[in-house]
Amino acid sequence: MKRIIFSGTVLLTANLAMAAEQVPSVVVSAARTEQSTVTTPASITIITQKDIQASGAEYIVDVLRGYGAIYVVDTFGDGSRAVVSMRGFSSSSANANTLILVDGRRLNNADISNPDLNSVSLKDVERIEIVQGSAGVLYGDQAVGGVINIITRKTQGEYGLLEASAGSYSTAGMRAIYGNTFDNGVNYRLTAEVRQSDNYRRENNAVDYANLLAKTEYSYANGSVSAELQHVKEDLQLPGSLLASELSVDRRQTYVDFLNDFTNTDTNVVRVGSIHNLSDTWSFEGEATYRDVERDIQQSFRGFVATSSSRLKQQQTELTPRLVAVFPLANGDMQLTAGLDMIATDYSSELTTTADNQNMLAEYVQAVLPVRKNLKLTAGFRHASVEDDLTSSFVNGKQSENVNVAEFGVSFDLTEHVSLFSRLDQNFRFAKVDEQTYVSPGTQLKPQTGDSIEAGVKYHDERLNSKIVIYKLSLKDEIAFDPSAPDPFGGNFGANVNFDPTTHQGVILESRFLVTTGVNVSASYTYTDATFDSGVFANNDISGVPANTGRINLDYQLTDATGVNLGAVYIGSHYLDGDNSNSQSKVAGYTVLDANLRYTIQDWKVALKINNITDREYFENANSFGSRFPLPERNILLTAGWQFR
Q: In the chain, what is the straight-line distance between the N-terminal and C-terminal CA atoms, in Å?
């Protein structure tokens, strides 16, 4: 930890000499309700709509890379099967330790499948709020490494967009958006997006995607009610992995056993929400969401060719009512939030012959108290329980678990421009439905629990926004796949286990700097030290976790009509996912450069995105069994659109 503190101190000196434009004044994710200032002692990174547009990114994962200490592991290069990791989790467990939300609605699944980030069109995104670090009290299950909350746009007046794109690998897409606001308080927004691509032109890797979204809201004197419907259809061919020897011959080939594999997914979402001011002090907020996912899967393994598809169904109902109170005090406003999180999941998979009825219930409370005008304390508590009714080839019957977690934090405004914060947040995650069934004989997974301690310094003025965060995350019974554990069949092909205690610690540095009018520079660096504390892997690095990651971005508005955005993401060397014995060679580090050229004239916009400018041959998804998923080399995407207000 001394090395981490020293590195952070040295880098902070350099970091404060850089950094960016001011972030939006309204932040939701720090307290699960809109507030004009961030009152909780947490490190929040905001990716603005301007950032997103300037990057020219096509997928949310491309926007996230390098921000807020995020490490992305993409399988095909289109974000459809990407894993988002925060604070030192490998790709095999990251999707269960980073909570991803859309306007507060969970994208995380009850099974180990990755959250479908592509179900959110970037054109519908207002901003992305990244809570760096544990948020177990406020958000509960899976909010271990951090929380990513994607905030969608609100309709203000009449707005429309027509856009088309085309690029490498037979990529083509179209988007249409229309919204309007009426004098009676009603507004609505309709979005349609379709896309096709050959995805790096590997044989059997095409995707056909459609996303339809309708949202409406009625605002009245004391609040608002809203509703949305969404349908997402994705037909994706699966080319499987390649061995290193196969990569050296032809990166775009597909091993013969995988030539007929696919996954076709239909997702339907219905959501209603309400905000109502009960009095000058108290307000009610709540949402009810129903999400239905049906997936046909045909997936083979080397030496075993699947000849028919299997069906997976997941129906999830989520209720999140809460009361928020703001009490004016002499030193500022005291904020109290109390609520319930109720999640019911009906899951079945023909592929793994598993069925589960899972019910989660949690009660939480959080208070922010202004002790002095420049000093605030935060305290909170959550009780959570889960009950599973399992049917599978290996485990049957009911299982139940419960946990209690607490948080305490302090934030202190040292000067007008410098603030300090420190907090302790306990976190947890319950085993997912299919994790519980694929375990070693006679084993039952325990809930994963942990303590997160962090401290940070923030500096901001009209041109500069910079911060350093030092953290230590100590986990007990971390749930992950261990390739060396006995499998459920009695063999040695691995199983889900509770690890011996692990420690994830590191330093996060971020800066944004308005150099001059039209020129913005942003940069970030993360050092991560994730290790086993004891057991057979004692003092070893956790596999699949790079110690060093970073990004730098330059945005230059050349003229009123023309702009250019240049970005670089660096991923350091790391052990292959699953190599917790640290016995194999590390994956070499790499840097990927991207550029986006944009031209705007009146209501017309044209952009040319160039990905992987240096034509780098690399992969992000790789494991100790030898599997590699090659990612695209240099490729381009041309987008043209017309919008009106």
A: 53
Tell me the sheet residues that pair with 346: 315, 357
Residue 58, both tokens: 């096509």
Stretch 193-213: mean pLDDT: 94
Rg over alpha carbons for the chain, rounded to the nearest Å, is 24
Q: Give the residue-averaged pLDDT of 364-388.
A: 95
pTM for the predicted model, two decimal places = 0.93
The SS3 assignment for 124 reads helix
Domain range summary for the chain, segments of one domain joined by +:
2-255+272-311+323-644
Tokens describing residue 57:
């990114």
Long-range Cβ contact pairs of 297-304 (< 8 A, separation 24 or more) = 297/262, 297/263, 297/351, 298/238, 298/260, 298/261, 298/262, 298/263, 299/238, 299/261, 299/263, 299/351, 300/240, 300/257, 300/258, 300/260, 300/261, 301/257, 302/255, 302/257, 303/257, 304/257
Nearest to 239 by CA among 443, 77, 482: 77
Rounded Cα distance between 167 and 172, Å, is: 7
Beta strand residue intervals within 299-391, DSSP E:
310-319, 322-329, 332-349, 354-372, 375-391
3-class secondary structure, 247: helix
pLDDT at 539 over 50: yes
633-644 core/surface letters (b: 16 or more CB in 10 A; e: else): bebebebebeee
Classify domain 2-255+272-311+323-644 by CATH architecture.
Beta Barrel (2.40)
pLDDT tens-place string over residues 44-86: 899 999 999 999 998 899 999 878 789 999 988 888 788 999 9
User: What is the model's pLDDT at position 37?
Assistant: 52
Q: How many CA atoms lie within 13 A of 627 on its CB side?
A: 15
Distance between CA atoms of residues 606 and 643, nearest Å: 12
588 vs 6, higher pLDDT: 588
Per-residue pLDDT band for 36 (boundaries 50, 70, 90) equals: low
510 Cβ contact partners less than 8 Å away, ≥ 6 residues apart: 15, 19, 45, 68, 466, 467, 522, 523, 524
Are the C-beta atoms of residues 241 and 629 closer than 8 Å to each other? yes
For 11, list phi and psi in degrees, rounded to 5: -70, -30
Across 22-36, average pLDDT: 69
DSSP-derived secondary structure letter, 122: G
Query: What b/e sequence results for 524-548 when a residue is b if at least 16 CB atoms lie within 10 Å of its CB, and e otherwise?
Result: bbbbbbbbbeeeebeebbbbbbbbe
Classify residue 471 as exposed, middle or buried by CB count within 10 Å of its CB (0-12, 13-18, 19+): buried
Q: How far apart are CA 208 and CA 270, in angstroms?
A: 23
For residue 273, the cross-strand partners are 226, 287
Question: What's the maximum distance between 2 C-alpha atoms anywhere in the chain?
Answer: 72
Q: What is the pLDDT of residue 7?
A: 43
Q: Which residues pair with 72 in a beta bridge?
A: 84
The pLDDT value recorded for residue 292 is 97
In 3D space, the residue among 150, 137, 145, 67 whose CA is nearest the CA of residue 101 turns out to be: 150
Dump strand ranges (E) for 168-258.
171-181, 186-197, 207-220, 223-237
Q: What does the pLDDT average to over 246-262?
A: 94
